[in-house]
Please model this.
Amino acid sequence: MAEQQLRRPQSMEEMLQRAANLISEQSIGNAMSFTPRPDDVFINTYPKSGTTWLQQIVHGLRTRGDMQFEEITEVVPWLETALDMGLDIHGDQVAAPRAYKLHLPFPMAPKGGKTIIVVRDPKDVVVSQYHFWNGWFFEAGSVTTTEIVQVMFIPRVGPLNYWEHLLGWWPHRNDEQVLVLGYELMKQDFPATLERIADFVGCKLDDELRDIVLRQSSIEFMREHERQFDDHLFSDARNEACGLPPGTGSKVRKGAVGDHNAELTPEAAAMIDEAWRREITPATGLESYSDLRDLLAG
Model:
């Protein structure tokens, strides 16, 4: 692509047009043909809901903290993009069980193996999305969080949207091979969550391994090793197809709960609340994300 064409979008309309090229049809088809093994682990989230954190946790559990990788996607592949990145999803991995990241709604996800679902407050998801895209998929400061809410987050843009992901997986939350975690509850009591994850994926958690994973999946450790968690292998592989200059987004930020209180306008927050009541409440009876979080907390 000619150099003068490699520029970042400056509007939501242009961003969505470019995003259509983010993953090739061939790479999606490769993911759809995937046959899981019974012990495969799928980390399936709506984007910006703790995916990278879970990749690091699961990889640490199965390798006792091995950090010999350029970027986490190299060892825990993103299923839908693996072909575009030249990664093999069908063979053995560096350790068992095999683990994969994906962002697929239930009808499109592989059937078999074990699936970890993480749900997060949609308002915090929007804020995290904004910071991830800002300066990578659109010119820094050219798009607002309110525009993302109105144009990309609330509408059902394609199969990958917050509402369909949650609605598709929620009825399976008690399935034996599905573990549903709340992001905020993970932050609140991570040691207890780590016990649940280790038991679910079949990794015996001794004291030494517990200490390793707690340390290496902390926000401080992951920020210190940010280059290993910034998705640069994916952006390097797909920037040109999207007409983007070199660069990537920010993956490891604060991981905070409640960021939206400072970064979303009251109007944008109200739009998300209304969308929740329209999209989620009729199917679940849950009036708000807080109700869902409380239900997961037991």
Summary: Residues 266-279 form the longest helix (14 residues). The two ends are 53 Å apart (CA to CA).
